[in-house]
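Here is a complete protein record:
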Amino acid sequence: MTADRELQKSVLEELSWEPGVTAAHLGVTGKDGVVALTGHVENYVEKFAAEHDVRRLYGVAGASNQTTIRTRVDAIHIRDDMVHALHRSWAFDRAISVVATGGRVKLSGTVRTPCDRRVAGATAWAAPGATVVENDILVA
């Protein structure tokens, strides 16, 4: 078995052990230690988890994450889900506006600290159905 095939096999095995990743939806190719992930995932968190798992494997010199986000979530309710998630994750300020069209989410408004801005963006990315997040929140 060639080194590239062994690397591909190792990556697929590692992804099958990751509970946050549906390995059956992913394709893996490898050449000279560089791994390319293809296929689809349900959200950005799954996309990040797959790439993170691949990058930490022995023998991986680089990774290209070409997966696409394909949600099974009702896109109509993303905005409401996002607002509820923001309420749970931090001291939600009513000065934050959430606009969602399909899986595209736009955050705007003002917060007190850069940390609050980052938390809002991360919360938006973690929400089911979010495929693109535009964080236009200002720190005041």
User: Anything to note?
Assistant: The beta strands are 26-31, 34-41, 62-65, 68-69, 96-101, 104-111, 132-139. The chain is about 35% helix and 30% strand. The first strand starts at residue 26 and ends at 31.
